[in-house]
Amino acid sequence: MVHNFNAGPSILPKEVFQEASEAILNFNNMGLSILEIGHRTDAFQSVMDEAQSLTRELMNLNAGKEVLFLHGGASTQFFQVPMNLLDEKSGAAYLDCGVWGTKAIKEAKLYGNVEVVASSKDRNYSYIPKGYSIPDKASYFHYTTNNTVEGSQMHAIPETDIPLVADMSSDILSTDMDFNRFALIYAGAQKNIGAAGVNVVITDQEILGKVSRKLPAMMDYREHIKNGSMLNTPPVFAVYVCMLTLRWLKKIGGVKAIQKLNEKKAALLYDTLDQLPLFTPTVAKEDRSLMNAVFTMADADLEKAFLATCKANGMYGVKGHRSVGGFRISMYNALPYESVEAVTDLMKDFANKNG
Amino acid sequence: MVHNFNAGPSILPKEVFQEASEAILNFNNMGLSILEIGHRTDAFQSVMDEAQSLTRELMNLNAGKEVLFLHGGASTQFFQVPMNLLDEKSGAAYLDCGVWGTKAIKEAKLYGNVEVVASSKDRNYSYIPKGYSIPDKASYFHYTTNNTVEGSQMHAIPETDIPLVADMSSDILSTDMDFNRFALIYAGAQKNIGAAGVNVVITDQEILGKVSRKLPAMMDYREHIKNGSMLNTPPVFAVYVCMLTLRWLKKIGGVKAIQKLNEKKAALLYDTLDQLPLFTPTVAKEDRSLMNAVFTMADADLEKAFLATCKANGMYGVKGHRSVGGFRISMYNALPYESVEAVTDLMKDFANKNG
């Protein structure tokens, strides 16, 4: 039995793997692989249409929202967002909560003034800043909903009247919220939506076209909207895996249902960590992520021993990010509760023997 | 029996589909899918390393060449190339041989002066211009080696002392040539190299860093080189499919061997077209593409009937691009000779009945 706690690319539902594997040999009984069909065929158009409409349905999006599946990962969005939205006269406001937010800020600065409204860098991004104010003249306010590396998560949508832009790469579709409050959402697919190599971008038409700079066609959201997310050959297989994963999420009850499971998994993991003095969660209690639990041990030798124990028990992806150290257990949508049971049992056992 | 003449995404070797399908269920006997492993794992690092080294080996590249597998398709390269290379003082020179070259020119103009040295637009891109001169002060000279839509191909590398940049999306690795003569080569993978959603970029270090504009990290080739083509999460599965396809190409004898097969396939197809007055190839004889054969029929009703006959015989992707009309038979590396025999037999039969 293998348990996959990878931070991304990460676990997807078993039935998605099964169907994707079959489609590579014979897609839709066409006698062709999904890898060798034209993207302008009816067969692939149906895939794109269903991926878009499932996204709408699962996120309960207003009719005015556009759903795109674009090349690249969130790192591409770090510059594509300001390229499209950052008006040089008004600038943009950013919240700095972790390495990904920091990278987004760096790219935005290429396009104009960026006001960092708050940062948790002072304590190695171990909490989410509160009590900051968002300037009301900025083009938009950008934040990262979940900090994959540091293990913190925003548990409420900030109040502001300016357009909200969120990087939801590592927690999209994991918790129910009013997704319509965002002017633009982007997410690299390789955590909760599908395979690496595609971005989901959800945007309002009305925020686009307000900057004066000229945009390359591939970077212009309006061009992608106009072309139904097929301005060029899309990452066909990655979009197909998104569609399968979205189908699975709908089948098991949608975002509300998965939220319950995610809360149950996180409760078991954090309760165990809190009960075992051997392990120290690094993030402020109220800001802990339901997706990525980060923790350390006081003793470096014990850390090595615990990592070896995890490995010996078929547990992948437990090692923390090099910038934080320690451990990281990622509990994305597709991770079964049993995997969290397995790792918490292992923790208790390890603590008994070494505590 | 199915024959896949799709122009891209297009046919790949059967054994690639088989291995890719298995890796989605169980990659390297890890008990994990290729879709759920981290890109920083040894397992994926080996995939990236092998994809890069096979590219080097098959193209006989000098040590100074860098091989990258980047997000997006050629359309992304249309602006990434000038962003990195087009010096505003010197401009760039482009050859206009088809819809893809035209798009590349449009994007390049966003970054500086573009001199179009020659164009075959006057005759609907049905030939390759000759006898043009390339300015010796331009930052680079850009051309499309094979025009997928129109069915023409450059059969020699232009002579110039300025850096050569080529879009080889639809004929890379199909014909032996001195790939080291190019300062930069790019190719969307979804024809001869692998699955949609990844670009192969081969570049010299020395041509980079000469422009003054600031580049977003994801657009800066130097950043990708520095990070071993893993600046961010790469399109993992698409890179894996490239590796499998490159392995297959090496196994069957490499570029020289596939060139012979490609010439044999193209000879059979064009000879048949030339012998049957019912069909009219649209491209000048000396400029015909080994990859995409484009032809029309004088009678629109007969065109419909021929298309229906192809469909009834399990032939996919025969319809021409909407900008050219008629038919297009794509004969990429992985297309078996038997498929060309099948379609030429069908043509002869159809001509007998309707000629």
How would you characterize the overall build of this protein?
- Two copies of one chain form a homodimer.
- The mean pLDDT of chain A is 97.
- Chain A is of the alpha/beta class and 355 residues long.
- Chain A has two domains: 14-251, Aspartate Aminotransferase, domain 2 (3-Layer(aba) Sandwich); 254-354, Alpha-Beta Complex (Aspartate Aminotransferase, domain 1), CATH 3.90.1150.10.
- The first copy, chain A, has nine helices and 14 strands.
- In chain A, helix 7 runs parallel beside helix 9 (337-354).
- The two termini of chain A are 27 Å apart.
- Chain A has helices spanning 14-25, 42-59, 74-85, 99-108, 221-226, 236-251, 254-275, 300-312, 337-354; strands at residues 3-4, 65-71, 92-96, 114-119, 141-144, 146-147, 152-153, 164-167, 184-188, 198-204, 279-281, 292-297, 315-316, 327-330.
- The first copy, chain A, is globular.
- In chain A, the strands form four sheets. A seven-stranded mixed beta sheet of chain A has the order 2-10-9-8-5-3-4, with helices on both faces. The first copy, chain A, has a three-stranded antiparallel beta sheet with strand order 11-12-14. In chain A, strands 1-13 form a two-stranded parallel sheet.
- Chains A and B meet through helix 1, helix 3, helix 4 and helix 6 of A and helix 1, helix 3, helix 4 and helix 6 of B.
- Chains A, B: This is Phosphoserine aminotransferase.
- Chains A, B: GO terms for molecular function: O-phospho-L-serine:2-oxoglutarate aminotransferase activity; pyridoxal phosphate binding.
- Chains A, B: Pathway: Amino-acid biosynthesis; L-serine biosynthesis; L-serine from 3-phospho-D-glycerate: step 2/3; Cofactor biosynthesis; pyridoxine 5'-phosphate biosynthesis; pyridoxine 5'-phosphate from D-erythrose 4-phosphate: step 3/5.
- Chains A, B: L-glutamate binds at residue 40.
- Chains A, B: Its cofactor is pyridoxal 5'-phosphate.
